[in-house]
Structure to design on (121 residues):
């Protein structure tokens, strides 16, 4: 979750977690980058998230988006977080499973698929 200092939490104790900028290679994933304005990028990201019926937007403020993803079958929720940098066209990302994950690597796969769609014209 988002820290008081405006950064995303580490993945230290989280199940099936990836985060841009994480110092542990097992949890590290690249941030999203965009061309154009942050508002356009945010709108595109929200549109892509809302295309998935299993995704529910929990928080949506100008520099931060938090979404929950319902599992396909029974299991814990996944959290997706997106933090827009105030200085560069970068979106820091974090995805983690609440509780014990039933599918290891699912959040990395989900974010990489979202990145491909986000980067497509």
């Amino acid at each position: 979750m988002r820290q008081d200092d405006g950064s995303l939490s580490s993945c230290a104790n989280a199940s099936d977690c990836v985060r841009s900028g994480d110092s542990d290679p097992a949890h590290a994933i690249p941030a999203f980058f965009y061309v154009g304005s942050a508002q356009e990028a945010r709108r595109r990201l929200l549109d892509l998230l809302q295309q998935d019926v299993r995704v529910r937007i929990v928080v949506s403020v100008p520099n931060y988006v938090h979404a929950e993803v319902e599992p396909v079958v029974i299991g814990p929720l996944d959290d997706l977080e997106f933090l827009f940098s105030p200085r560069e066209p970068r979106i820091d990302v974090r995805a983690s499973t609440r509780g014990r994950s039933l599918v290891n690597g699912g959040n990395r796969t989900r974010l990489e698929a979202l990145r491909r769609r986000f980067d497509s014209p």
Q: What stands out?
A: The longest strand covers residues 90-97. Residues 106-119 form the longest helix (14 residues). The chain has a mean pLDDT of 88. The helical segments are 38-50, 106-119.
